Amino acid sequence: FKGGDTCEYLLSSGRFLGEKVWQPHSCMMHKYKNSEAKNCLIDKHIVFIGDSRIRQLFYSFIKLINPQVKEEGNKHGNIPFEDKSASIKVDFLWYPEVNGSMRQRIKSWTEGSVAKPHIIVVGAATWSIKIHNGSNEALTQYKINITSIAPLLEKLAKSSDVYWVLQDPVYEDMLSESRKMITNEKIDAYNEAAVRILNSSSRNSKAKVKVFSVSKLIAQETIMKSTDGLHLPESSRDTNAMILMNVYCNKIMKPIDGSCCQPQPPLTLIQKIAFCFFTLSIIGYLIISLIHRNNYRKNKACTDLESGEEKKPAISTPNVSTLELLLHSFCKLGLIMTYFYLCDRANLFMKENKFYTHSSFFIPIVYILVLGVFYTENTKETKVLNREQTDEWKGWMQLVILIYHISGASTFLPVYMHIRVLVAAYLFQTGYGHFSYFWIKGDFGVYRVCQVLFRLNFLVVVLCIVMDRPYQFYYFVPLVTVWFMIIYATLAVWPQIVQKKANGNCLWHFGLLLKLICLLTCIYFLSYSQGAFEKIFSFWPLSKCFELNGNVYEWWFRWKLDRYVVFHGMLFAFIYLALQKRQMISEGKGDPLFSSRVSNVLLFISIVSFLTYSVWASSCKNKTECNELHPSVSVVQILAFVLIRNIPGYVRSVYSSFFAWFGKISLELFICQYHIWLAADTKGILVLIPGYPMFNVLVSTFIFVCVAHEISQITNDLAQIVVPKDNSTLLKRLLCIAGFFSGLHIFSTMQDQSRH
């Protein structure tokens, strides 16, 4: 389903999500702040012409510029408004009827060198119905008057934005006696006449008068809340004003969550190069596949016509070459990236705003929980946080985070605080997993570092190129990457202390603890010294990676939010491995982790701690204050969960294969959701099948999960080629990668200069 002209949809169609949230058909509407409205309308002149309904729209519109404005002044007269700070001028002109006076005013803007308004909003009819008691003669005169005004409006539309506001329906039961003649039947007749006459002579689509008909749909849902049956309630007027602001400002301000009326962004130089590269990869793979197929046919076993015996081919079918695997991977990746681009950069598919309800979040949570429990299997090993258990943990957390994002649950503070713990738990696993590996294996080689960095960053680097987004935009990957390097530096720097060395002399344990204390001190200093943090990450080339919107504040905020949890993961791994080495814990199948008494006490404390955190998070009143406490207290619920999951022997011996499957592709799921499940860079929802929300979610989810799984396979295949074990070959590949990023930087600089 093609998105089509989103401006036309914004002005003519949509539906309510809940009671007050308006959802235009096929696109997303941005909620403009006062500062944004001023920036858009700077040095602009806007005119509203019409009756009391247009006056209402005028007041709602200027309140977007200055919320302090009060609705006062002559109700049946002209009302001026001016914002001197932004040189914005908005006028309401009282012309309750479409007549000669209105025509004369409009005509004055078409003559000579008179300054024309940038935006003109016109509409009137109810006064004509009321004054002439709903007579047919009045309707006939209305048609004649509009016919005379239409060419003037079309002439103005060549240089200004001109909107004709259709008449909203009335709530006839509530109308006063003096307005009883204003019926919905009459209003429909007047609207039909206006639509038929306007633009009848205009063939140039750019010079058309835009018909603002969406107000009718909004009024149909809300007019019964009117105080007099004629005028819209304030919330509906505000929605109309916001639609008007989106129609004019989206193409100027280009908000991410305002896809209505935004043109498709032009391809950048880097995107064009990427397109050529993927095209060549696809062509190369097809050529190699055809060559191999022809060779296979030539060497295929054939039947000897004389003896009837099967002859074996002289040459066996060769294994897949490195070049073929490379081209095959890039071929698939190219097709997948085309889908990414079509979903979130081209105006091909529809996008809609998120709307949170408790049921839209909690019902899917219950559903996946039931599925997860259904697919329960025995683990291969029963150690604390074994591989299957950590995959399961990542899996269910990722599914909950996905539901959180698509349901828009960030607006509900208790859910937001619990999701923050899940993100912290990912980082906890980062600290636990990488510390355990370096501590046990003692492998600080370049190969290990490059493998981890490649697997973490490959997809994000490709998306930065294809989707024209900065690296920091995908904030979680930079976060995990930096923490991995911090863990590596902490353990690899002299003296290198590993388990094998520490077993020979207990003093090495104190040396490692001293390293961890130094790390904690550095974290504490940077978290309370924003200036020092920003200086470190403002140096080139770090600034190219961590800047977002021209500064590194967003990166500092993300890092600070979970600053201690990786350290907690490292410390937990150290304590656990020390206890394991001294055989102070029991990890046999079905055995509790400690003695029965200790296990019961720890389990009770863990459950109480887990619930206490949930109660605190649910009672949060202010997001800023809760975020300040989160880094210090999130570890409580994480450790409580780890102990609850591992102390009982039976619970530790089973896992959910359903959750574990998703856990293996959790990173790809987290990144891919930005563009092919959600839309507008996570601000909205991708709509492949409009009109069927549940079916749309099922289809888009199926494609999304398949793509994430395929990208995981591609990343694994390419990691073996790009990051070989042989050191000399690896060094050559690293030089090639350095050259690639140098070229990318040069093209990026050229791109930025052309934009400016």
Secondary structure class reads alpha/beta
Major sheet: arrangement of strands:
4-5-3-6-7-8
The backbone outline, from C-alpha atoms, is: elongated
Low-confidence runs of at least 5 consecutive residues: 302-318
What is the helix content? 55-70%
Percentage of residues in strands: 5-15%
Number of helices, counting only DSSP H or I runs of 4 residues or more: 29
**Count of extended strands:** 15
Largest sheet: 6 strands, mixed
What gap, in angstroms, lies between the N and C termini?
Answer: 35 Å
Q: Rg from C-alpha positions?
A: 33 Å
Number of domains: 3
Mean pLDDT: 92
In terms of topology, how is this protein built?
Blueprint: H1 6-12, E1 14-17, E2 21-24, H2 34-41, E3 45-50, H3 52-65, E4 79-83, E5 88-94, H4 100-110, E6 119-123, H5 126-131, H6 136-156, E7 161-165, H7 184-197, E8 210-212, H8 214-222, H9 234-253, H10 269-298, E9 302-303, E10 310-311, H11 322-344, E11 350-353, H12 358-374, E12 376-378, H13 387-407, H14 413-441, H15 446-466, H16 476-492, H17 499-504, H18 507-527, H19 530-537, H20 542-546, H21 553-561, H22 565-581, H23 596-618, H24 623-646, H25 649-652, E13 654-656, H26 657-664, H27 666-676, E14 678-679, E15 684-687, H28 693-722, H29 727-755
Parallel strand pairs: 3-5, 3-6, 6-7, 7-8
Antiparallel strand pairs: 1-2, 4-5, 9-10, 11-15, 12-13, 14-15
